[in-house]
Amino acid sequence: MKTGRIGSGTRASRRIAAWMSLAVCAVLACSSAVFAQAKDYPESYLRYAGDPQKPGQAAGITPPQLQQVTFKQRLGDQLPLDARLRDEVGADVTLGDYFRTGRPVVLAFVYYRCPMLCTQVMNGISSALKVLPFTVGKDFDVVLVSFDPRDTPKDAAEKKRTHLQYWSTEATAPSWHFLTGDEAGVRRITSSAGFTYHWEERTQQFAHVSGLLVVTPDGHLSRYFYGIEYSPKELRLALVESGEGKVGSAIDELLLYCFHYDPEAGRYGAVVMNLIRLGGVLTLAAMAAFILLSRRRDAPPPHGAAPTPWKARG
After folding, report:
1. What CATH number has the domain bearing residue 80?
2. The domain containing residue 17 runs over which residues?
3. Which ranges of the chain would DSSP assign to H, the alpha helix?
C-alpha cells in the first residue's frame, strides 16, 4: 500500500530537483555572461562629423579631428539649470524649465545642420524609445541642445517636425524639446557634462563624440551612453535608476539588482555577487519547499481521520 505513496513522493522530489537545477543553471549562465562582456568602448564611441579614417592609418591612433573633442563622464555633477536657451518657437527658456516635472530627462548634444551623425544620434534615441515600456511625457522627457550657434529656433522647429514625422510620433511632440542658444550659454552646459567639440574649417563641420545622457529629475548627470545605437534594456535600467523610484515596476527594480552600471564602458553589466546571492535565495527557497512537501507527505494522518487510499502502480 505504500508503493504508490513512495512513487508519488519520488515524482514530487524529481520535479523540485529539476526546478532547483534550472535555477542554478540560470544563475551560472548569467554569471558566465559577465566574463564574456567586453570592457572596451563601443566601436561608435569615437564617431565624428569629419573625414573618415584614412586607409592604412592604425586603428589605435586618434584622428587629428578628435584630439580636441571629448565626452568625459561626470556622474553626479549638476547641470547649470539657470543657463538660458531658446525653444523651437523662439521663446526664452532656461535649462531648468525642463526639470520641473519630476521626471528624468534623456539629453543629447547635437546640431540641426549636421549632415549625418546628429541625425543618426536622434534616430538611435527614437529607435530605443520605440520598444521601451515607458512613455515619453509620462515617464520621462527628451531634450536636445544644439551646440552650433548658427542654429536658429526655425532650424530647431523644422528638425523636430521632420524627425517626429519620420518616426510617426507627432503625438509626443510636447515632450520633445529642440533647443538653441548662444555659444557661451551652450558651452556652459556642454562643459558641465564633459562634452567638448571642435569646428573643422576645412570640412565646415563640427568634430564631436556621439552619445546621450540620462539626467535625474533635479538635473544631476546619472548615466552616459556612447555611439549612435542605444540598448533599450540599458536605457530602461538607466531611466528606472535615474527616476528615483518614480519610473518602472518591481521587475525593473529586480533587474537593477542583477545589473550594475559600468562607467568605464558606459553600459550595464551583470553583477556576479548579486547573481550569486539571488541564486542562493532561489536554491534555499527550493530546498525549503522540498523539505516541507516531504514532511507533509510523511506525516501520519490526524487522529480519527481515515487514511488516504494509495494505489500501488503495476
Report:
1. 3.40.30.10
2. 3-38+273-298
3. 3-36, 117-130, 153-166, 183-192, 232-242, 250-258, 272-298
